[in-house]
Request: fold
Amino acid sequence: MKFLFLIVFIYLLPQCTGKPLIRDDCHQHTFEEIKREIAGYSDIAKAIINLAVNGNAQNRSYERLANFVDTIGPRLSGSKNLEMAIKYMFRVLQEDGLENVHLEPVKVPHWERGEESAMMLAPRNHSIAILGLGSSVATPPEGITAEVLVVTSFDELHKRSQDAKGKIVVYNQPFVSYEETVKYRLLGAVEAGKVGAVASLIRSIASFSINSPHTGWQWYQSDVPKIPTACISVEDAEMMARMSSRGTRIVVTLKMGAKTYTDIVSFNTVAEIVGSKYPEQVVVVSGHLDSWDVGQGAMDDGGGAFISWEALSLIKDLGLRPKRTLRLVLWTAEEPGGVGAEQYYQLHKGNISNFDIVMESDSGTFMPMGLAFTGSDKARAILKEIMQLLQPINVTNIYENGGETDTDYWVRNGVPGASLRDDISKYFWFHHTQGDTMTVQDPSQMNLCAAVWTVVSYVIADIEEMLPR
Amino acid sequence: MKFLFLIVFIYLLPQCTGKPLIRDDCHQHTFEEIKREIAGYSDIAKAIINLAVNGNAQNRSYERLANFVDTIGPRLSGSKNLEMAIKYMFRVLQEDGLENVHLEPVKVPHWERGEESAMMLAPRNHSIAILGLGSSVATPPEGITAEVLVVTSFDELHKRSQDAKGKIVVYNQPFVSYEETVKYRLLGAVEAGKVGAVASLIRSIASFSINSPHTGWQWYQSDVPKIPTACISVEDAEMMARMSSRGTRIVVTLKMGAKTYTDIVSFNTVAEIVGSKYPEQVVVVSGHLDSWDVGQGAMDDGGGAFISWEALSLIKDLGLRPKRTLRLVLWTAEEPGGVGAEQYYQLHKGNISNFDIVMESDSGTFMPMGLAFTGSDKARAILKEIMQLLQPINVTNIYENGGETDTDYWVRNGVPGASLRDDISKYFWFHHTQGDTMTVQDPSQMNLCAAVWTVVSYVIADIEEMLPR
Reply:
């Protein structure tokens, strides 16, 4: 396959005005052409914005999402709910008149939390709000009762490793940023297991809390004992840290009925508007359909999935058909680590040269600010022109790092990637909690996000050349 | 008793420079004197502020409160925890070297929520987060299973009263303000009971939610069937409203094991710094010691109780003794409706003429803005001068309505009343929820609140004249 790519690559190199590459020696000319070409989409961009924000499609993505999450609820990888969600989407995408609506089977993890609870027995009885972490093992049915060791960092745990044996390690690490702090959720059980702890309770990765535990996936290592692990609220972590700093002995009983079943078949859900001129070339717009098993998965990632669907609906409603194929992919099993997306990549990477751009919205659909982008300088210059079409709603910024969990497989291999950037100031208040519901979504903000998503994906799919890599 | 008061009153009228009244015909002179007198407290005010904010007492009220709420937990009227809390305070107030530390017995309600749950059965299985409302009756052990009627107001309920019979009424009223909206919590069950509903679920009285139910007291009427009633989260109320607006049939099973026991003896907790010159005259600083049975009751009203204690501690630490008695009262059973405070009033109202001012902090101890005050214009003018002493920390504002639940008995009968005003923008995010914990309290803000509380109460207790009524 690699050999064939090389031939195609060499063949295409000299094609200054052709597709898909823009060569340096003729870039100046071509870029001016592209600028003019993009400027020509001004009326279409306005029509998209108008339809999404003020027209018949106003609030449609919000209302569709509300209907979906109210009907299905949360949709964890491996669950019946996710299966129902996929069937639901398969039906409504067909009813919407989209093309090539189909499901692509993939194997996904099946973990269930079962019954779970944590009770502080000393210094006083107190019910601790917990959410077991994805892939955690269970406790014995009678639970694990042990004294608590509170630490604020892995460093402190390592320094106090002699104290950890037989204890339940409570991590009370401060929230710095999700990227920086999530290692405690991902590796807290492994690090505690290494020093002989019997369980770990991890302060939720949250920038604000109303006694809200935040779940999420975690990783074991094959050479380290697997200990049960759950997240607790910021409040309870802080309280146990205060008690511990006073020298108070804390005893907790943790019960978790979590179970990992064998992987099961799920599906990436796909729908298209087939390209008129280069149907084999694709622009991917996407979000993931699975969610955590709490709340409604409205924000993570219902919003991203439904503005992606909305992009195709708006284009169809306007009677538009881009030159390239616009492909909606609703990834399955993102939460266990981009599982559906990885298999999609393995299945389709042979066709990587035809992937123009991969777009995923998976960081909220609040007030949009622009797009994050990964790609060549030339592609970025083109995107900058396209973003000018969003002047009417003042969403023209371009940021770094356009890959998301599901699209990174492509981006790491050279395909331009874009993700939606929006006001995430409250995102980690709700992320992976019971509070991830329609209440956090705003129809006006979703309209704007859908407009951004649609203008960008449509114009990239319709301009004569693919984005240069 | 009234006759005696009248004699005292007449006797005192002509005493322009005497206590406790300032008469119009000599007010000008006296007020100038008072202004000068108050200005003379500038150094003492600075010393109080310095000790509270920067000195040895820095963060003391926060740390004392943390220790208290971490040790005791929540303290509902009638509970063992409240009993332990009172014993704890009795001990630490004595250890602090305060005077006349004693408990005054009162009868308080004893209601326990027991086990409770709500499960949506149709259109899908969904566990609804609830908190039963105080004084609610139980459901039968098997629960109440019924179709839901969602309304957004009492008006809508009355218009649809024919539909309510046999239903569980869900109120999805918008949050306007606590004062405006709390009627749905207080009277929701009565109004639903009048039209034949079998239970009521009330959207929490909350300005923000992370799926957080907010409990609170509610009132039955003797001529209306008592139906079980609980609060639900904003999120679930909105979801059921959306489902209902789509014509979706909703069925819920509500189980509540709530039980009202006979009233039991509790105590208002009192400590003093006895006045040097007019010991029979009192300035009351107060907060309530009871809380709801969720979270830690750190905000409502741990903060108010502990800055009130702090006021006495700071004055004692500075070696000060005001002319009048400074009395700390930690009310019991505020949450069921100022029950401890009412009995205190009945017991002590014979002495009302000696109550100089009643101060309660029960609206948070966040960043202080000033004091709310109820009293005569002359008293307000004096308070304005006192507030100038708080210029160093820029907390000089005076607002209206200085009564709180526990002090209103006095204020309605003519005693000047003051309450702390602070930044309550997040107060109703946490109020009566599992999120009312030390995490919402800020030591620096509590230092400032304590400084305000102390300067005002000390100066009022020490100036030559009582506040004119």
